[in-house]
Amino acid sequence: MQLPLTNHTPWTSRSQALRTRLLPLYIAAFSQGLVLWAPIEKVFLRGLGFDQAALGLMAACYSSLIPLLDLLSGLLADRWSRKGILMLASLAAMLNALLGGLSYNIPTYLVSTLFFGVEVALVSGTYESILYDTLLEETGHGLAFARHLSQVKLLGSLALLLSALAGGLVAVLLSPRLAYFATIPLGAISLGALLPFREPHLHHTEERISLASHLRAISQILFQRGKTLRTVTILLTTSLLLSAVFEFGPLWPLALATPVGLYGVATAAVLSAGGAGSWLAARLTLSKPASVVGMAGLLVASSLALVAVRSAVIVILAQGVLVAGGVAVNTIFTRMLHDSLPSEVRAGAASGVSAFSSLAFVFFALLFGVVSQHADIFHAGWMVVGITLLAGALLVKSAHR
After folding, report:
1. H or E element: which one contains 14?
2. 157-166 pLDDT, tens per residue?
3. Which of 117, 149, 285, 337 is least buried, going by the fewest C-beta atoms within 10 A?
4. Are 85 and 122 in contact (CB under 8 A)?
5. Interval 339-398: pLDDT, tens
């Protein structure tokens, strides 16, 4: 077994060794973000007969799987292999694209979304955990975690950005269905990239704890009063905000009769904002009250634009600000969470937070679908405003404490 580099190893050697070790992980994250069907999904679904209520049902359908699978995958990642979990996620992504491309009605497409839910559950918390423990093995600390996690998220956002542009082009020149099939080999690239990755084993203790003890340790960490509980609460609200924008954001351009050819550009703009948020997270400090209040106010103002403005350009810009700010805040508080987690329960605890976020989104998606169906997307947007107000209030309160 290769020993971790000590503090006596030259800094340049440690840095090069870390970059080399993390390279397969970066390639996998980038490949898993290449989803060509994402920008044209809502247009494709309209052709299958989906209405607003059916879209809400679809989101609730796959989201209902995620809370249970989130926790199970986190436990399995801690007790078995985090690299193995990421490889299973790549397989689920390939099956999702295959079944989506073969769908010709609502029920068959709903089946394909279940595999999307499996992929989301398997990935959530796993990249964070494997990255943090790799840093611990190589450097002895996790001080650079936010920077490296931001790089992973930035690569994922870049991949989604390229997918948005390429997927829109494929849909216009060929067909939306082909965008699904073209995603399958891209998932295979991530699978191959993970094979040579050397997984850290800090989570493998000499004495294997029982499953009940594992769950008890996770719950004690996540629900202890004080800093950790405040961190978890902010992670829940920002995750719900990002899920709402990513899942239902394309409905605003649809309601504003945006040309189909611009869907890829609009999606690319929002996804690139996620990359900007990742870049911002590595440089933003929330230690000053003015910075916190400014971030909270910017998020709330952007959410209000979704209900008050009827310009597609301004709506897309507002969604971009919500995504950039949400990603930045979420990344910063993710680092704070992992700083407080022991390696043996790291993936399970991170996945537990994701599970609660997904459970909240199930109810949100059902209600959002009903409101947008019986009123319109702009009235449903008040639900996004409510989440943003809650996230902003928690952020300001946390900074005050």
Report:
1. helix 11-32
2. 788 778 877 8
3. 285
4. yes
5. 878 777 787 788 788 888 878 887 888 888 888 878 888 888 899 999 999 998 888 887
